[in-house]
Amino acid sequence: MFSRKNRRPKSADLLKAWECLDAGDIPAALRLVKPGAETLPLAETALVVGRAAAMAGFDDLGKAAAALAEDPGKGQALYDFGYACVERGLPSLAIPALRDALRGNPGALTVMRELVSAYEREGRHGEAVEVLTRHENDFAPWPDRYLLVFNAIMAGDLALARRRHALLPDPADPRWVPTRDRQRRMLERAESAEPVSPLGPTDLRGWQFVMGGTILGTLSPFGFDAGMTGRYAWLQDSYGQCLEGLLRLRALLDAAGARPRSVSLLPDRDSRILGLAAAEVLGVPAEPFAPGREDTVVVAYDLNGSAQAEGGPEILGQLFDRAPGQVLHEHASNWTDVPVVTADSVTLLHQSVVAPWGEQLRAGEDGEVERGPADDRPAERIAAEIVGADPSRGEGDGRTPADPLAAFTDFVAAVHGSWLRGDRARLTSSGPVPSARFA
Question: Which CA distances in Å does 19 have to 51, 52, 409?
Answer without folding.
Answer: 11, 11, 56
